[in-house]
Amino acid sequence: MATYQADDGWDALGDPTRRAIVACLAERPRAVGELAEVLPISRPAVSQHLKVLKDAGLVTDRAAGTRRVYRLNPAGVAALRDQLDTYWNRALTGFQDAAETPTEEES
Amino acid sequence: MATYQADDGWDALGDPTRRAIVACLAERPRAVGELAEVLPISRPAVSQHLKVLKDAGLVTDRAAGTRRVYRLNPAGVAALRDQLDTYWNRALTGFQDAAETPTEEES
DNA sequence: GCCTTCGGTAAGTACTAGCTTACCGTTCGT
DNA sequence: ACGAACGGTAAGCTAGTACTTACCGAAGGC
């Protein structure tokens, strides 16, 4: 298998093409061929990316005749969102001591 | 420059090591050397990752003597969270028509 | 039944990003 | 002023991943 196996939703979204797929599926569910028409890559490449996204739990697929319709998985997206919330809360509660010192370069 | 330039916070979080750094900085701000002690990589590698995270707006740095203390940037984290919210909302509002058809393999 | 459409898989290639060591500038301590 | 600590940068190597074309199975239309 030359395809990449994502352990994590973050790894899956680390690729710009996969983010484009996710953004596309956020509008409405689409078949593999539809995605390949929009994106600047071949259809097999789309399949490989969809496999990664599916393994990461970010999309779900459903057979519809000969076509296979992929849609965004809200649960997977929510999982990432919760993790970001954790970071965000820790960053705020732990240390506001330098609220007036934003990213100074040097003296 | 052999260092990777992230266009996006997603690209920055696409790397497991950078996620470890972010998780570490979420607890409390740390200097570069402190991070290098905890992480299984060399100090220059940490520096390179911090540059990527800084360019992505996920961390901020502050000079403290000879040391340089990095901390998580709540604004950067919030930006990613908002984007996930958008995806999440679209996924829910656009198509709940198949709420009872989760990831079936085939007939 | 046949052919077409659709999509996943295999094999192979090219590029890029992450790591290392080596080096240099800066700041503090004495 | 000298030395040490801290950290950013350069150059180079390696690994892995994103892409391609070719092939194959499955489901529908006529």
From TrEMBL, chains A, B:
Transmembrane segments: none
InterPro entries cross-referenced by the UniProt entry: ArsR-like_HTH (IPR011991), HTH_ArsR_DNA-bd_dom (IPR001845), HTH_MetalResp_TranReg (IPR051081), WH-like_DNA-bd_sf (IPR036388), WH_DNA-bd_sf (IPR036390)
Coiled coil: none
SMART domains, alphabetized: HTH_ARSR
HTH arsR-type domain sequence ranges: 1-92
Keywords of this entry: DNA-binding, Transcription, Transcription regulation
Domain of life from the UniProt record: Bacteria
Name of a matching Pfam family: HTH_5
Protein name (record): Metalloregulator ArsR/SmtB family transcription factor
Species, as recorded: Micromonospora trifolii
